[in-house]
Amino acid sequence: MIKVAIIGYGNIGRAVEEAAKTAPDMVLAGIYHHNDNIDTINADVAVLCTPTRETPAYAERLIKQGIATVDSFDIHTRINEVRHLLDPQDKANKTVSIIAAGWDPGSDSMVRALLAALAPQGITYTNFGPGRSMGHTVAAKAIQGVRNALSMTIPLGTGIHRRMVYIELEDGADFKTVEAAILADDYFAHDETHVIAVQSVDELNNVAHGVNLVRSGVSGTTHNQRFEFNMTINNPALTGQVLVACARAAYKMKAREQYGVFTMIELAPIDLLYGEKEQLIKALV
Amino acid sequence: MIKVAIIGYGNIGRAVEEAAKTAPDMVLAGIYHHNDNIDTINADVAVLCTPTRETPAYAERLIKQGIATVDSFDIHTRINEVRHLLDPQDKANKTVSIIAAGWDPGSDSMVRALLAALAPQGITYTNFGPGRSMGHTVAAKAIQGVRNALSMTIPLGTGIHRRMVYIELEDGADFKTVEAAILADDYFAHDETHVIAVQSVDELNNVAHGVNLVRSGVSGTTHNQRFEFNMTINNPALTGQVLVACARAAYKMKAREQYGVFTMIELAPIDLLYGEKEQLIKALV
Q: Mean pLDDT of all residues in chain B?
């Protein structure tokens, strides 16, 4: 049995707990809150469900103990930087870290890499939603006069997105002033954005999300090869499941002495799965 | 540069030639016809485009020379048997074989494995077509009274398929007799099948094909997670491209001393791709 520790116990930590409990090859080795001491824990793999920016520092503390780590670090532009930080530490402590293991970055990245292999020349568009954007929601909440907010991402195709921003105004706040401040914010200034005042943002909340990933490209010299990947999902449930699948992959890779840091495009899909190799090949290939 | 030899020069061999010529990291090391001597060839990777049943025997001759091999062996029920045959030979000769590397089995297998990881409980349906089935076409051509035939696979959903069989009758053949023989053939007896007499089968021929792969399942304890993968493609062009991408993966894995036999669900998507690791991660993750 793989001993899995959960570090951070918000929405994602809870989803990881659910997914780990349903995994036939895993046992929970402890759930640690944000401020708990994690410097001497007994686990094979730690799943980091802490805020993204703090994740690399948590990973370092666990790698020191030789524990494999998995996280869903989601700042696309900083992924190589985190790789360079953790890779030598993983190698020195003979362990494995899998980073950026959510659905995007994460499982979508595996699909993008596969489609690039199937049609090396072409364009891939990743269209998100409809679903809540955490980053945009936080940005809207930070605007003066906003009591509560929800920013929904609406896909318009070819990677272009509309932002639907639902806000509760603070008492006395002026809608037009707040709307102008949101539209001027760098998070919203580059997209088509609509601001709508509502009585209750909580009534609108929903963790549904989706992806429509499209590639048209060229295989060899043959054009018009068309590929599409769609999903409509409960967002934290999928993120938790991906983290648990990657915890399994990290465990297997460590057992094979493949030490170091990995993103999901560097993983073999079979390593994400529970089950005997021969049976998995029979069922899936 | 990876030196690639092509063994077998039918539709797939020609498609591999096109894909290898467009690959920036490959050079053609020779094209060998079915009966050419392949016992002393100079190549890093041999792509086997021979008839499926003969492929394992060709692989053995190349593995003996320490050459990596790639094939699109497509008899799903015999894949583990071929693994057991080739794996010890690959290890003894310090080389790599990637088998069942087409689009199904092949890239579809990678998608099926990924979706099983994203929602471990659930059902995946693979729907093929519209497109020509080689196996069914050959079976129809073998029926007495048939001069030429084309069997199209039409997806009806949930993995159920209709067979549209277009035939040219031989002079004096009776349509009703031929139709009854086709409907009774084991290839057709289990599916909804329609037989249609035409003047010219060649006029209908088209290498377009497609897949609609659907999974609805459970992530953690959350139901109604929905995933769909679609493609509409030129069949030999995609098969050729997959084989060339896997030739690259075999070359990289051999360089890392990961000797043995592999199916595509055991490959990391990044190994299929040309380019520098850091750049691929930046572009795709």
A: 97
- pLDDT number for residue A55: 96
Chain B hits for A118, Cβ within 8 Å: 103, 107, 231, 238, 241-242, 245
Cα distance between residue A41 and residue A213, in whole Å: 40
Residue B65 has pLDDT above 90, yes or no: yes
> How many CB pairs (< 8 A) connect A and B?
213
CATH class given for the domain over A2-105+236-277: alpha beta
Nearest CA of chain A to the CA of B55: how many Å? Answer: 17
The whole-angstrom separation of Cα A277 and Cα B61 is 27
Q: How far apart are CA B184 and CA B198, in angstroms?
A: 20
Q: In CATH, what class is A121-219?
A: alpha beta
Asked if A245 lies within 8 A of B121 by C-beta distance, the reply is no
Contacts of B116 in chain A (CB under 8 A): 273, 284
**What pTM value is reported for the model?**
0.97
Rounded CA separation B11/B7 (Å): 12
Dump pLDDT digits (tens) for A131-146: 999 899 999 999 999 9
pLDDT at B35: 85
Tell me the two tokens of residue A268. Answer: 């073999």
**Of residues A258, A266, A272, the one with CA closest to residue A90:** A258
Q: Rounded to the nearest 5°, which phi and psi values hold at B28?
A: -75, 125
Strand boundaries in chain B, DSSP class E: 2-7, 26-32, 45-48, 68-71, 96-98, 121-128, 131-132, 146-155, 161-169, 192-197, 208-219, 222-234, 260-262
Searching chain B, which residue's CA lies closest to the CA of residue A247?
B117
Among the partner-chain residues B119, B221, B240, the one whose CB lies closest to the CB of A220 is B240
Q: What is the ipTM of this complex?
A: 0.97
Average pLDDT of the residues in B55-61:
97
Q: Do residue B264 and residue A282 have CB atoms under 8 angstroms apart?
A: no
- The domain spans of chain A are 2-105+236-277, 121-219
